[in-house]
Amino acid sequence: MQEAIIQVGGMSCQGCVRNVTGALSAVAGVTAVEVSLERGEARVNFDPARTGVAALRAAVEEAGFDAA
């Protein structure tokens, strides 16, 4: 397993946190997601054989948020 920390821009409430969490959890290979509104980041544990950081960032952006 690998961990990535993705900076997430545009979150303003717990609903946003739920949306980002759901988007990341839906990516194949993701095993755990922790999104922090206060820090503006998502910590994601994933199987690098099944997905990568680019796909995680794309999932966040498809949910309507900025990812770095």
How would you describe the overall organization of this protein?
The protein is α+β, with helices and mostly antiparallel strands and 68 residues long. The chain is built from two helices and four strands. The protein has a four-stranded antiparallel sheet. The longest helix has 12 residues. The two termini are 21 Å apart.
Q: Which class best fits the helix and strand makeup? A: alpha+beta
**Poorly predicted runs:** none
Fraction in helix: 25-40%
First-last Cα distance? 21 Å
Count up the helices: 2
What's the story with the biggest beta sheet?
A: 4 strands, antiparallel
What general outline do the C-alpha atoms trace?
A: globular
* Average pLDDT over all residues: 97
Give the SSE order as H and E letters. EHEEHE
The total count of strands amounts to 4
In short:
This protein is of the alpha+beta class and 68 residues long.
Task: For the structure shown, list the relevant keywords.
4 strands; 68 residues; 2 helices; 4-stranded antiparallel β-sheet; single chain
